[in-house]
Amino acid sequence: MGGKILSVASECVPLIKTGGLADVVGALPAALAPLGWEMRVLLPAYRSLRRLFEEAPEAWPEVWHEENLWGGDGRVRAGTVDGTEVLLLDAPHLYDREGGPYVGPWGDWIDNPRRFAALSWVAACIAREGLAGWKPDVLHAHDWQAGYAPAYLAYHGNGGCRSVITVHNIAFQGWAPVSQIDDLRLPGWAFHPAALEYYGGLSSLKAGLVTADRITTVSPGYAAELARPEFGLGLQGVIVERAAVVSGILNGVDTAVWSPEVEDVNPYSAKSMTGKAAARAALCAEFGLEVPGPLAILVSRLTDQKGVDLLPAALPAFIEGGGGLAVLGSGAAEMEAALHDLAARYPGRVSVRIGYDEGLSHRMFQGGDAVLVPSRFEPCGLTQLYGLRYGTVPVVAAVGGLADTVINASPMALAAGVATGVTFWPTDELGLSQALRRLLALHADRKGWTRLVRNGMAQQLGWEVSARAYAALYDGLLA
Asked: What are the chain's domains?
C-alpha cells in the first residue's frame, strides 16, 4: 500500500546517539523506502545539531512555527542528512544546552517533561495538520520521549492520522507529577487509572500506550515478557489490557556498516576466515592479552541490567579453563571497579577499557571468539546480532530479543546443525558459569566450532525482514 510516516524520537543516527534507539530510528527510513513508505524523522535541535541550519540556513528552511512552545518560539526546519528527510525542532530555550539529550552537568534536566512534551506536541500538530504539501498517514512515536504524541492526537484530534508507539525499553517511563497536567496540555478529565494516571502521577510512556492505535516492541519475546510484573515494571496491566494491539518486531542491523566483509583492516567472510585470525591476534596485542582458549568480549553499558555484576563470580573458572576477556564500556562506578579488579587478578587474560570507541568496538567483534550478553532483560539487543554477523559466538541470557535471535547449542540443535550460540537461564552467577563452561567445551571441538560460527554468519540480520513487518503494520492501520 505505502504512504507517509512521521517518525518522532529523541535520537537518530548519524545525528545523535546514546543507545540502540538511535540505530533503529536511523535505519527505518531507508529500509521502508523500497516498500513505498516515505518516512520523515522529527528530532529536537540539540546544541550539537544546530550547526546544520546555522551553517547552511538555505538548506534548512522553516516549515512550522509556534510562538509560545513552553516558554519560547518553536520552529521546525526541514533538511536532508545522508538521504534521510529530517525535521529539526528548533527551540533553543529547551534544547540548546550543554550535556546530552537528557542529562546535563548536574544530572537529569529538571524540565525533561516539558522538553519532550514539546517534541510530542509538535509531532501531533504536524500529524494532524501536515506541512506544506506533506501530511503523514501514520505517526510513529518512539519510547517515553515521544509518548505524549499519540495522546495529543487522541485528546486534541488526529486529523485522520493513525498512531504507533514502539517500546524500546520500558524501564524508562517519563514520570512527572500530576501538578504539571495543565502545563503539559493534557486534559484533567483523563487523569484516572484507565488513562493518564500512573501511581498518582503522569507517565508519558503510559500516555502513549493507552492512546496509540498500535503498540510494538523491538522483539516478540520482549512483547510477551512485558505482560509480566518482573518485566513490565508497573506497566504490565496496560500491556495485558491492550494485548490485541501489541506486537513485537525484531530489530535489524545496518549490514553496510556492521559486516566483516566491509572492514578496512582484516576483512573476512564465512568462506574465508583468515582475516578473523589476524583480527584476533591484533586484538590480543591491543589489549595486552595472551589467551589459549576462547577470547570473549564484552561491549556494554556496565550496569546491573546488563548482568555485569555476575562476572566476578562467574569468570574465574572460565579463565582457569583457558579463556580470556576484553571489555569496552562504562557505567556504574562499582561495576567499573569490579572489572578493574578482575583485570588486576588475571593480567594477560582480562583487560578493560572504560568508555566507548566505535572503531574499537568493530575491532573487538572482528577479533573476539565469543561475545557475552548476560542481561537480566533485553528488549532486543544489537550486540548479539553483531556477534552473529562477525562469527563471534553469542553467549546470552534467554530473555527478550536475545532468546529470539540466538539458537542454543543444545545436543539436538548441534546434531541438527542449526545452533548459533549459547543461551542460559536464569540470569544468575550459576547460569553464567555453566554457560561459560559450555563455551569452553564448544571451542575445544574445532570442527563443531567452525560450524557454529558459520551458522551464525548465515543468519539474515539486515532490516529487510523487519521493514516488511513494519510496512504490514502500517498497511493494516490504514486498511
From this structure: 3-252+463-478 (3.40.50.2000), 260-457 (3.40.50.2000)
